[in-house]
Amino acid sequence: MLKRFWLWFGRVLGKVLLVVVAVGLGGWAIGAVYYGVKFSGPVSTEEQIPADEAALTQGIIEDAIRVVEQHRDNTRVMRDAHAKAHGCVKAEVTVSPNIDRDLQRGVFSEPGQTWQAWMRLSNGNAYPQFDRARDARGMAIKLLDVPGEKLSKSPQHAYEQDFVMFNHPAFFVRDVAEYKSNFAAQADGKKALAFFPSWNPASWEIRHLIIALKTLSPAPETPVATTYNSIAPFKLGEHNIKYRVIPQPEACPPYQLPEQNQDLPNFLRNALYQQLSLDRVPACFALQVQQQNAEYYMPIEDPSVEWSERISPFETVATIRVPAQDFDSREQNLFCDNLSYNPWHALPEHRPIGGINRLRKAVYEAVSVYRLERNQP
Ligand code: HEM
Questions:
Q1: What are 101-140's pLDDT values in tens digits?
Q2: Among 118, 120, 172, 207, which residue carries the largest CB count within 10 Å?
Q3: Cβ(367) – ligand 1 distance below 6 Å
Q4: Kind and range of the H or E run holding 195
């Protein structure tokens, strides 16, 4: 009797498993065909600005200020994103001596030229948490003493060229409209549900949910051992590009970071301190650009789509050296907190493009002014 039951149960279980596998494969095949058709080129090389973008942007600024206020501590207002820094370090950015002529634009115009810079390394979250928590990791670079008129008219940033990145290659929303509804839902405490705005399956953003989950990844061993991406596109002279900063340890003296205690809340800062300040070993990176090939699906207006490296590989335009240094002092940490990065602190040759970048212009300016005004001593 019992034997017959187990045989029957085994057959039922086998059939259920078969159905699950068939549904999974079917879903995958439908998805592959759907995205194969939807994500095919050619695409526009120009920006396309929706009529309601400015109004949506105003609403997002208000939401961002609300988030900043929710997370302020007693004395300081923090950034709305990337609130926790691992440190601000001095860096040298040197234009590659053999940079392609076609890419010699803006700050990359003179092969061999070295720019002094401030690099801020951060966790992505809106308030500080243990480094062990799954999160995006940010890198922001500010080149100093850059001559020429800038896109931002703010006099404090008149000589700066910023590069602002984090360590995932795709963004979790497509445009300003989706950002608005997603951010509002997240602010209401909805997490995964923010990607399912209504009962209508056509509104579900499962691909974007997967990107969001992948973006929240375990911490690297040290902030200098992960690749940081612009994610959104930019001009480089007449070209449309994305950029990234990739570790290049082979350009620095060989170094093995001693194992860090990852249970400590700030072990990423500790790792940086260990390498740069205790062991006095520099860190090296390459700054690379990837050109849009508009024959293929490399859109300007959707940073949730990674541009294919097979079709358009990244090319190195500069190297970055973070020299051995002491960076973890009270004064420098305060200075770091008071820095403002913005992709629009830029020469016109490096103009940010696409909806998410247009949105960032207004939001970064507003949040930066808001927190700096309130953090005056
Ligand atoms: C391509 C997508 C994005 C990337 C790569 C990115 C990356 C970063 C990084 C690395 C920082 C920290 C800068 C620093 O160290 O001071 C930052 C700050 C910030 N981000 Fe983003 N971000 C992106 C999109 C957005 C969007 C869509 C918004 C909201 C509309 C946003 C809002 C902010 C704000 C408000 C700050 C703080 C600005 C300040 O107070 O100075 N970011 N972002």
A1: 999 999 999 999 999 999 999 999 999 999 999 999 999 9
A2: 172
A3: yes
A4: none
Residue 243 maps to a domain: yes
Amino acid at 130: F
In angstroms, what CA-CA distances link 106 with 37, 184, 318? 37, 37, 12
The boundaries of the domain holding residue 115 are 45-52+79-173+219-355
At 27, the amino acid letter reads G
In a mutational test of the pocket of ligand 1, which residue from 139, 335, 363 has the highest number of ligand atoms less than 8 Å from its CB?
A: 363
206 assigned to some structural domain = no
Q: Does the N-terminal peptide bond of residue 42 adopt cis geometry, omega within 30 degrees of 0? A: yes
pLDDT digits (tens, 9 = 90+) for 4-42: 889 999 999 999 999 999 998 988 888 888 888 889 989
CB of residue 164 inside a 6 A radius of ligand 1: yes
CA of 361 to the centre of ligand 1 (A): 10
Kindly report the three-state secondary structure assignment for every residue of 210-262.
HHHHHHCECCCCCCCCCCEECCCCEEECCEEEEEEEEECHHHCCCCCCCCCCC
DSSP 8-state code for residue 308: P
Q: Which residues contact 148 (CB under 8 A, 6 or more apart)?
A: 347
Question: 10 Å Cβ neighbour count for 124?
Answer: 17
Structure tokens at 323: 């020299």
Neighbouring C-beta atoms of residue 182, cutoff 10 Å: 21
Show the DSSP H helices in 132-231 as ranges: 176-187, 206-215
Q: What is the pLDDT of residues 283-304, one digit of tens each?
A: 999 999 999 999 999 999 999 9
- The rounded Å distance from CA 29 to ligand 1 centre is 36
pLDDT score at 247: 98
Q: Round to whole Å and give the CA distance between 246 and 257.
A: 18
- Ligand 1 atom closest to 370 (CA): 40
Report d(CA 176, CA 178) in Å as an integer: 6
CATH code of 142's domain: 2.40.180.10
Name the burial class of residue 219, with classes exposed (0-12), middle (13-18) and buried (19+) by CB atoms within 10 angstroms of its CB: buried
317 Cα to the center of ligand 1, angstroms: 24
Domains in the chain, number: 1
- How many angstroms is it from 80 CA to the middle of ligand 1? 8
Q: Does residue 256 belong to any structural domain of this protein?
A: yes
**Residue 342 forms part of a structural domain:** yes
